Amino acid sequence: MKSRFIDALAQVEFLKGQIAIKDNQLTIKDQQIDKQAFSLQLVIQENSRLNIKLLPEVPAQKEVMKKWFEFWK
Question: Residue 19 and residue 12: Cα distance in Å, rounded?
């Protein structure tokens, strides 16, 4: 009975070590995900900035259009 108890304690200690390793792996994975999310956010911001530059300027088109009652000018 005593030897079984000692074996069970050894298994518990082994499993505690395994849990510590998995916790460390999860922490590393969380850090990687945070870095990827930040990088993705930068890409989205850069894309938005570039899209704004590519849009046509609407005020220039409005200046060219005549008012409806000035069609003869």
Answer: 10
Q: Say what the pTM is.
A: 0.55
Question: Long-range pairs for 13-16 at CB < 8 Å and ≥24 separation?
Answer: none
Task: Place 59 in a pLDDT band, splitting at 50, 70 and 90.
Answer: low
Question: What is the three-state SS of 26-54?
Answer: HHHHHHHHHHHHHHHHHHHHHHHHHHHHH
- Decide: helix, strand or coil at residue 73: coil
Q: What pLDDT is stored for residue 61 in this prediction?
A: 52
Q: Are 67 and 60 in contact (CB under 8 A)?
A: no
CA distances, 58 to each of 29, 49, 52 (Å): 46, 17, 12
Task: Enter the tokens of residue 24.
Answer: 């460390």
